[in-house]
Each structure stands twice: as C-alpha cells, then as structure tokens.
Amino acid sequence: MAKQRRTDAGLDAPKGLRGAVLASRDKNSSDRFGRFTEWVARAMGTPGFLVGLTLFCVAWIAYNSWGPENIRFDSAAFGFTALTLILSLQASYAAPLILLAQNRQDDRDRVQIEQDRQRAERNLADTEYLAREVVALRLAMKDLASKDFIRHELRALLEELERDREPAASPAEEEPRQ
C-alpha cells in the first residue's frame, strides 16, 4: 500500500517556516484578488465596456418591449425591475472593486515616491561629494607651480650657476697671462 502524502503547506516547510509559507500563500491569494480588481477597474473604464453595457440594456429593453408577450421576462409597466436590479448589482460590486484597485495604485505610488526620494537623496549626496572634490582639486591646482613660475625659477637658478661659475673661471684665465 502506498502512503498518501498530505499536501498541507504547513508540512511541506521546515518547522520555523510553516507560518511564512502560509502567510505567503495568503499574500499570493490577496495579490491575485488585487490583480483581479485592477483588471475589473481597467475593463470598466474602457469604451468597449460602455458600448457593450449600452447594447445589453438596449437589447433587454427592446426584447421586453417588443418581443412576444408570453416570453417576456421583465415588464416595461413596472419600469424594467429586473434590469434595474442587475445594473444596481453591477454598480454595487463595481464601486468597491474600483476603490480596491485605487488603493493598490496608491500603495504603489507611495512606494515609488519613497524610492524616488531615496534616489534624490543619494543623487544629492553624490553631487555634494563631487562638488567638494572639485573644490579640493581647484585648491590643489593653486598650490601647483605654473609654467611661468617654473621658467622663472629655472632662469634664476641658471643665472645663479653662471654667476658661481664666472668667479672661478676668472682667476684661472688670469694665471696663464702672467
């Protein structure tokens, strides 16, 4: 006899993770319902839905107004009560589904705004760091010798060397004359 395996999520996970597995299943089911509400909200906002609903209402009213009297199911004399109830039911479900979809969108917007704020803070910190680095480089460049300064110093050294060399060369030139 083969043993029957239990497919309970609580037994498929290690002891410490059982609650996490069940919570993730709950999250997935609520996320699935959230995606469904967004789909409904998007579908109800399309011209296709409005045209379809209008055609449905026109067909309903036309059939119950001019169709064979013995097979009509909604009376024009009572103001198309069944149609009114169907549209009221549709509206009573549509409004909360649209609100749920808007709440999910608000949550996503809130997360996006927080991420944008954090990104802006990082960009500001990076910009400030780069500005400090540029200032440090400018200050370091001021401490560096320019070409004109180096040329001037080299000329001064060359003149000094030539001056040091001249007095030593003068007595040597005077000796052979004697």
TrEMBL record:
Keyword Lipid metabolism: no
Annotated TM spans: 39-63, 75-100
Domain of life: Bacteria
Presence of keyword Acyltransferase: no
Coiled coil: 103-130
Keywords, in A-Z order: Coiled coil, Membrane, Transmembrane, Transmembrane helix
PANTHER family hit by this protein: INTEGRAL MEMBRANE PROTEIN-RELATED, MEMBRANE PROTEIN
Protein name, entry field: DUF1003 domain-containing protein
Organism: Mycetocola lacteus
